[in-house]
Structures are given as structure tokens and as C-alpha cells.
Specification:
The chain has 15 helices and 2 strands. The chain is an all-alpha fold and 301 residues long.
């Protein structure tokens, strides 16, 4: 019996797998699957995802590539003005009403996770206005498009565009940003495909934010897998107030939140939820307003 070296046997298995993947993809009309998606399908299949399912998803017209999502902007830092609207009287009154209406669930969450109910309400107000706005972008094409950001053609196109505004910008810096963003989106896409694998709902009818955040709590897919507490499955979780409250409490608790933390420590934990200083500041200010305690430069309501 001839024994082939392990490296050769492994290479043959990989080649056979790629042939199977390619044949499955090509069983669809290639016009139905954009060439960039074909490369993405090969990559996902190598990571163990079902190629036939993937081909069906990306052949669907609802999975069309979102070209604006491939554009890289120079200044992506969030500013304070974006969050000022949440500190006005109308949203604060809405938050107080929400707190009263969901007081039982909030108190149970507070006792279980030692996270102040006002903080959770503040997050839900900012993230989705208590479920009114959970996103208008289909999650699969959103994350799939972002996962393609590091294609050589897209990097070059963005580099030439950005040079018009900043002649000093380097190709290396654009490439580094694109690769980080694409790798993040690819991992989140895999997480989302894992989430919907056991669900009966149409995966292409799941909507989220421009970055693929989901549900009332606006969890990215990896956060859902790690911290969400769905009582009746993913579809119900998307608009379940109780699930959103407990999922946020679980997330913050898992990152070290407990009562009577210093403000600095609270800020660091909230930064893991959203890496934006204005966001973090606004969450804490709303929570203080809901508690009825004064905050910086404000009088007690």
C-alpha cells in the first residue's frame, strides 16, 4: 500500500473540496451571483458553511451588493451633536414612560445582573427608540458587502478618491483600514449565518443597522451569540422587550458592570458596547435624568 505524505494528502483534500464548491456555485447561473460573492462563497465554504445554502442566498436579488457601503470616509468619528436629541424633553419623557411600563422586567434584570435599570433604558432609547427603529438594511448583504471591502479593486478606488481630500494619505493606511473592516464583517457574517441556521424565518428578511446590528438592543451577531438571552428564539428576540432588557443586562454584567462602580469604569464598559465617547456620555446623562439626579451643568428635574 502506497502511503502519501500528509502534506500531499491534505492538499488533495483541499483541491477536491474546492472543486465541489466550484461545481455547486456554477450550478447556479453565474449571472445571478456577482463575481465578488463567488469568491466570498468559496471562503465561507472553506470555513465549513454549506455551499448550496450560500449559493442560494447570494443568487437571490435581495442580496445585491450595497456599493455605498464599500466607500471609506476620512472622518468617521461621532460628534456630540448626533446625540443631543436624546437629551431633550420628548425622548426623556418617553424613557420615563418606558421605565414605568416595564418596571417589573427591569427590576428583575437589576436584581439578577446588578445593572441599574436606568442605564438599560437609556441604551434602548438610543439604540432603537424602544424597538421603533431596529434598522432598514438587510443583514446578509450588508455584512457580505463590508466583507468585500478589502478587494484590491475597492482599495485602489478608495485610495484614489481619498487622495482628492487628503494628498498625504497613503495606500498602506487605506489598505490597513479596509482589511480590518472586512475581516470584522466576515466574522460577523459567519456569526449571523450561524444564528439563522436553526431558524425558520427567511434570513434575507432580517433587517439591521448599516453595520449589521440586530434587534432592540442592536447587538452585532457575535454579541448575540455570546450575550443574548432569547426565551423563544431569535425571531422573537428581535422585538422582545424582556429579552432586550435581560440581554443588555447580561452583556454589561459580563463586562464587569456592578452597582456603585466609578464613572470611569462605567465609561470603559459602555465603550465596549459602542466605541463612541459621545454615546457613552449620553447614556450616562440619560440614566441620571431618569434617576432624577443632577448631571454636569444641569439642574434636577
Amino acid at each position: 500500500m502506497v502511503r502519501y505524505p500528509m502534506v500531499l494528502r491534505t492538499s488533495c483534500l483541499i483541491l477536491i473540496s474546492l472543486v465541489i464548491v466550484a461545481s455547486t456555485v456554477l450550478s447556479y447561473d453565474t449571472k445571478e451571483i456577482p463575481s465578488l460573492y463567488q469568491e466570498l462563497i468559496f471562503r465561507l465554504a472553506r470555513d465549513g458553511l454549506n455551499v448550496q445554502t450560500l449559493s442560494g442566498l447570494f443568487a437571490d436579488s435581495r442580496s445585491a451588493i450595497n456599493l455605498p457601503a464599500l466607500v471609506i470616509y476620512l472622518n468617521t468619528k461621532e460628534d456630540t451633536e448626533r446625540y443631543q436629541k436624546f437629551l431633550t424633553s420628548e425622548p426623556i419623557l418617553l424613557a420615563r414612560k418606558y421605565l414605568r411600563q416595564n418596571l417589573s422586567s427591569l427590576k428583575k434584570m437589576e436584581a439578577r445582573f446588578h445593572v441599574e435599570k436606568e442605564v438599560v433604558v437609556a441604551i434602548l432609547l438610543i439604540e432603537s427608540r424602544f424597538g421603533e427603529n431596529i434598522g432598514k438594511y438587510r443583514v446578509i448583504p450588508t455584512l457580505a458587502t463590508l466583507a468585500l471591502m478589502d478587494s484590491p479593486e475597492n482599495i485602489e478606488k478608495n485610495f484614489q478618491n481619498l487622495r482628492q481630500y487628503d494628498p498625504e494619505i497613503s495606500l498602506e493606511s487605506v489598505e490597513a483600514f479596509a482589511k480590518r473592516r472586512a475581516q470584522w464583517a466576515y466574522q460577523e457574517l459567519k456569526c449571523f449565518l450561524k444564528i439563522i441556521d436553526q431558524e425558520k424565518m427567511d434570513p434575507l428578511e432580517v433587517y439591521g443597522s448599516h453595520a449589521g446590528a440586530l434587534g432592540m438592543a442592536q447587538f452585532i451577531p457575535s454579541s448575540y451569540l455570546n450575550y443574548a438571552l432569547p426565551q423563544k428564539g431569535f425571531e422573537n428576540w428581535l422585538l422582545s422587550h424582556e429579552d432586550a432588557i435581560n440581554s443588555i443586562g447580561n452583556y454589561l454584567s459580563a463586562h464587569g458592570w456592578k452597582k456603585r462602580l466609578s464613572r470611569e469604569r462605567k465609561e470603559r464598559i459602555l465603550m465596549t458596547y459602542n466605541q463612541s465617547e459621545p454615546y457613552v456620555e449620553t447614556v450616562l446623562r440619560i440614566a441620571q435624568k431618569l434617576k432624577g439626579t443632577p448631571t454636569r451643568g444641569e439642574s434636577k428635574e
